[in-house]
Amino acid sequence: MAAYDYIVVGAGTSGCALAYRLATESDASVLLIEAGGRDDNPAIYSENLGDTMSLWGDPNLNWGYMTEPQAALDGREIPVARGKVWGGCSSINAILHVRGNPKDYDHWNYLGNEGWSYDEVLPYFKRLESFPSGDPTTRGHDGPVNVIVHDTPSPVSECLFEAAGELGFDNQGRDFDYNGSTQAGSPFYYQANKKDHQRMSAAVAYLHPILERDNFEVMSHTQVTKLIIKQGRVQGVRCVTEGASQDIHANQEVIVCAGAYETPKLLMLSGIGPVKTLKAHGLEVVVDAPGVGQNLQDHLIVGICFLSKHESPYPPTLISETGLFGHTRDGLTQASPNMQIKCGGIKFVSPKYDQDGPGFTLAPVVTQPQSVGHVTLRSADPNDTAVLQPNYLTAEADMQMLLTSTKLMRDLAHSNAFSEFYKVEIAPGDDVQDEAGLRAFLRENVTTLWHPVGTCKMGHDVMSVVTPQLQVHGVEGLRIADASVMPRIVAGNTNAACTMIAEKAADMILASA
Asked: Are 105 and 90 in contact (CB under 8 A)?
């Protein structure tokens, strides 16, 4: 049987970063296993927005996930793009670099997750990035991930700065760093993972530089179907490559980095999960872990779209060019923002509402969703995708947030700052003004931002799956280091947080070796 000191399952954002640190900061042998293939599609590197959008529906790069019909979204099934390729979702996402709010991590720590306060995770955010223009007290200057401030914004997206000031927000200027000491209250240019006008995935930043190392190996087109557990300890993994099955031994640890859907699925297939679910699919119960697959949280977004009087002089390279974090109701100012605004010089709208001509979009995001769902098994066949029930918009608080922020998007668009560009509202449209009409529009058009987290949360309660050291409760030698361990979702795009988790996990693993 082949053997390695560490086996990392999943070459997505977290897996690439973790494998890099384990391989470069120790002499241990490291195997990274990825169900997808090499990141050789040119669109993965292109900053052209059309190329990026072509990646989302490519079956060669995507797991093909679809939610269950969503009762609060008129029964719609929502497609969820999940990267199945080197770099995972970082190879097909919008490449926005957003850490989340410092209060998010202090809340993780408040929940009993020692070591995860903002002050304790900040060094890992700094270590992962190269952002030379940033304040060295909060930003990293020589990390693997190159971060830039959006350098070709469309003129209409820049209107957000003055428009926000008109509505009473604190406009701190175009140099405001939302990834610095303060996140909320002021508009900003989005930051992106790019270098030399090319997208930078986790594979580019972390995986490509270690391909020639003697202590590192990557297996592509290989799906891990089971964790091999004996006498309370993980011994290795069972995986399939081109129909051939093999077992691989782990001398030290197995670290699962397969994401918020595939990680709980793999645990359940291996006998770690809710007893009722395991028995229903004829699986042996190794560890009764009722929290596996629970606590699913995701960000929702909707496009409030307008026609513009002018074409943008630049081809779009980012879906979101400028933005703002804020609060939509009183009493939240000391909490993490519950709203993120995305502004861009494109029409983010369904064909039903689209009209000829250039346009722009102001899109609110529910950053602190109260709607919580779950992931469970479809069958005992590893080739079947998991069942996704996110329960989108089932919490009235999320609907209220979107109703309030939709009015704010309209107020921004009608400000003096946008008057040079604003022509007409096409979604939801000027004829939709009453609450019933707006609720109907939101149910029909709200969608996911593809930020699922929380399905193997860290903590100490009965629903927790991993300890604050990311060790799976009840199994020795097994850790999880990906979006699934987040006890609560962060305010903003989740990619940077997933990288941070892997960076911190690497130190934990090496310290315990």
From this structure: no
Query: For 159, phi and psi rounded to 5 degrees?
Result: -65, -20
| SS3 assignment, position 70 | strand
DSSP 305-343: EEEESS--SS----S--EEEEE-SSTT-TTS--SEEEEE
Rounded Cα distance between 101 and 99, Å, is 7
Give the pLDDT confidence of 206-232 residue by residue, as tens digits.
999 999 999 999 999 999 999 999 999
451 catalytic, yes or no?
Answer: yes
pLDDT, one tens digit per residue, over 430-477 is: 999 999 999 999 999 999 999 999 999 999 999 999 999 999 999 999
Strand 2-9 relative to strand 30-33: parallel, antiparallel, unpaired?
A: parallel
Residues 6+ apart with CB under 8 A from 423: 306, 307, 308, 309, 357
Give the integer Cα–Cα distance in Å for 30 and 128.
Answer: 20
Q: What is the mean pLDDT of residues 289-307?
A: 98
Q: What are the DSSP calls for 149-176, one per residue?
A: E-SS--HHHHHHHHHHHHTT-----TT-
| Buried-state track 171-185, b at ≥16 Cβ within 10 A, e below 16 | bbeeebbbbbebbbb
Q: Are 401 and 328 in contact (CB under 8 A)?
A: yes
Distance (Å) of CA 11 to CA 353, 388, 465: 38, 22, 22
Catalytic, out of 97, 221, 451, 460: 451
What would the DSSP string read from start to end of 188-221? EEPEEEEETTEE--HIIIIIGGGTT-TTEEEE-S
Please give the structure tokens belonging to residue 222: 């290989």
| Mean per-residue pLDDT, 73-99 | 97
Query: Mean pLDDT, to the nearest integer, of 238-260?
Result: 98
DSSP state letter for 409 = H
